[in-house]
Amino acid sequence: MKSIPSSAPWRDSNAKESERAAAEGIAALVRGLRRARGFTLFVAVCNKPSECDGLLGMLFEAMPKVHFHHVCVSPETDDLLAEVLAQVPEMSGPILITDIDRAIRWDQPRHPVLETLNLQRPQWLRRVTQPVILWTPEPLLALLGREAPDFLDWRSDTIHFPDLSDEQVQLVREIALPWEATLRSLNAREERIAELKQRLAETSHDTDRAAIAARGSWLLELASDSASLGRREEALQAAQEATDIRRRLAQDRPDAFRPDLAMSLNNLGTMLRDLGRREEALQAAQEALDIRRRLAQDRPDAFLPDLARSLNNLGAMLRDLGRREEALQAAQEALDIYRRLAQDRPDAFLPDLAISLHTLGTVLARAVRLHDAVHAFAEGVRVLSPAFDRLPQAFAPVMRELVADYMTHVKELGESPDMELLGPILAKLEEIKEEGEKRGSVEA
Amino acid sequence: MTKSIDAITRLFRACEPNEALQPGDVRYVNCDDVRGENLVQTYVRSLRRADPAKPEVKLFAGHRGVGKTCELNRVKASLETPQSAENPYRPFRVIYMDATEKLDLNDLDLPDLLTFIASEVVTQLRAANLPGFDPVSTYLTRIWDEIRSALGKEVVLKEAGVETGFGSLALELKNRPNSRQALRRAIEMHSTGLVGAVNDMLVTANVKCRQNGCEGLVLIVDGLERLVFRTLDGGGSTHDRLFIDRSEQLAGLKAHTIYTVPISLFYSPRCAELEQTFGEHNVPVPMIRLHESDVPAIVPDAPGMLKMREMIEARCRHAQVNVADVFDDPDTGRYLCEMTGGHPRHLMMFLQAAMNAVESLPITRAAAEKGVRNYANSLLREVPDEYWPKLRAFAKPQSDMPKDEAHQKMLLLLHVFEYMNGSPWYEVNPVIRTLARFQRKGK
């Protein structure tokens, strides 16, 4: 599973937990299917049919060599096993069962299909030779628990997919795929972690300043790699050690090492936030900001971009803590700095300006200033457009977020989106998606 | 040098202007006291005192032919000197790389340079065989794989493995101007990763060096001062594009690094941006002072003039030629020295040109004048019309140099020389002074 890179600024500022959870759900299913031998039951909980389709598509893409059987349950059936055996006479791969809710007569007190299912449990084990994923909406899961408890009790795992918009489903796909490349990158990351750990072990007692500084860099990288593999505690420990080292170095030579300390604190803040330790995260981010503010006072040319990045991060953290006024102030200050930077060096800073507009938009949306939020998202789209035209692949993720949030909030306002602005961008995003799909199928 | 060849040929060969002398060469003459600034000592000292945890990046500049490479060789030798009773310092491991050999200096941009540096660092660190160190990390391998896949199928590299791949790619960049832009785009996409991977290698090697009795690593990237100055279509110059626009990346290498840069860069209108990244007080290797700024006349026994004579004597010794036999009159030798304006390579050029005008030694006054005239004629053609009025301002020593493109070029093309004695001063190339056009008023 390709985790969302924690260093990507737009992710730092606006992590989408639900997309992350969905991507991790897909990864869990893939792992489960790879490991399963014979009949193993997985229950996938998903409320929206369109989302379910999207997730199934991802599974197919993720396991291109696997032959899936898709069983759409007919509304008339009272016997799920019979339906499966009829639709899949020769089982050569996992069986995905969907639409079982259509066979439920919700207005009836008894549900024969579930009763039969519960009674037939031993037959499933004998006659179904492949893993099964039963896709169900939440209300049906509750019913299954009550009326087919024996059958449900056999499940290997229950994976809940949060409700996602179509755009979000697409984003999940981008996060989770392409799988082959992802697996390669996972292996490479593991190798790198081993390499870093070896270096750290070889210098664990080294008191030389160069070795200590090097350990700081290695620990920071280890933290980032561990976090990306979901080993958050390990990541936090490394990030904390890196910060301690840099704090010591900065005490000796503040001018030379304060920028490094600020970077460490920023990373530490992100990791604490990901672990839900929001107050500590805020404290680290605030310390990073204070350092960068001082640095930027002395050398604005060199440190204003870092200051703006810190403000943007802090704005997002304050937003998530519900401290709206402070969040707004930080996000606005970040935006003001990026505006100035982008005026002098548009090529370098327009993308950052767009990210900052996105953060401000989300802060305004939380404050229910929807009109202002929509304006910020729209401006973000406009600002990012030249860079997106030039390097569509590189800027697609942030453009997609801007567009998705713009659409969502325009809809909430009951207004029509500006298609003159969005038309070419949506077409390009679609093109990128298709290219990705083609590439995926070629690699498969 | 064998005596079976005649004296003039031996001397001619000993005066090769394009040869940078290595430390220990009998032809080498130490000019520290007449340059006004002992840069070798300054660089070596500052690197020895630098915080090993915070690498320093330094620029090394000077007029073409003033002896930069030779001085840089001295810096290298001094840094590498083993610890002994005379030298209390631990030696550095120096990775020296000459960009002129492997890069196209007509058109050089950061991706080319990064690739070249990656290639040299991998190769030289592999050869160094540091205990417990492998230059090819998983990080470097990953970046190499990413760059290779970004190159696409059109680019087929002879060596595709990570160990030799960067060298192969650098060669492609040099030899295939037509596909250069596409190659650069592919590398540029991964430039942050590439710098990261090179830094990863440098930091680890530095730690290993220090664990094994060394003071650390120093990179010397020579030859970059030869990057051709050209105004770019979108504004700016080739120099600004590499040294100023990309200065953060250049300064971002995590080992002490010395880059040679064109002297004109210090006179760029954007010099302040350069100083922001590399620090202030970048002093070029100055010309040898033949006179002081406040004493316009050159006297024969001025320390600089004696140093030029010492250079001729050293070449004569090497060529086994009696110095007394070289010139028809001591004044002829003094004339040549004066015409150099303290520029060591010009002395060699004039000596060879003068020798070309005679069948055998001695060099006559007429031959010496002929040698100088050859160079003067080329300057006459080379100096653009609009420069002449500006150049006349430098007939007398000037303490300041305007920071604009015209003056940048005047320094770069050796129309104006920079001298140093505590503070810098600027004076026209003495050969230009001999030209009638310089002496005329107006254009």
In words, what does this structure look like?
- The complex is a heterodimer of chains A (444) and B (443).
- By secondary structure, chain A is mainly alpha-helical.
- Helices cover 73% and strands 5% of the residues of chain A.
- Chain A has 20 helices and 5 strands.
- In chain A, strands 2-3-4-1-5 form a 5-stranded parallel beta sheet, with helices on both faces.
- Chain A is globular and about 75 Å long.
- Chain A starts with 8 loop residues before the first helix and ends with a helix.
- Chain B has 443 residues and is an alpha/beta fold.
- Chain B folds into 2 domains: 38-278, no CATH class; 303-439, no CATH class.
- Chain B is built from 21 helices and 6 strands.
- A 4-stranded parallel beta sheet of chain B has the order 1-4-3-2, sandwiched between helices.
- In chain B, strand 5 (416-421) and strand 6 form a beta hairpin.
- The interface between A and B is medium-sized, with 24 and 20 residues.
The percent range for strand residues of chain A is 5-15%
Greatest chain-chain contact: A-B, 24 and 20 residues
Strand order of the largest sheet of chain A: 2-3-4-1-5
Give me the strand/helix succession of chain B: HHHEHEHHHHHHEHHEHHHHHHHEEHH
Count up the helices of chain A. 20
- Distance from first to last alpha carbon of chain B: 49 Å
Summarize the main sheet of chain A: 5 strands, parallel
Total number of strands of chain A = 5
Major sheet characteristics of chain B = 4 strands, parallel
Secondary-structure element series of chain A: HHEHEHEHHEHHEHHHHHHHHHHHH
- Overall shape of chain B: it is globular
Q: Runs of chain B with pLDDT <50, length 5+?
A: none
**What's the helix count of chain B?**
21
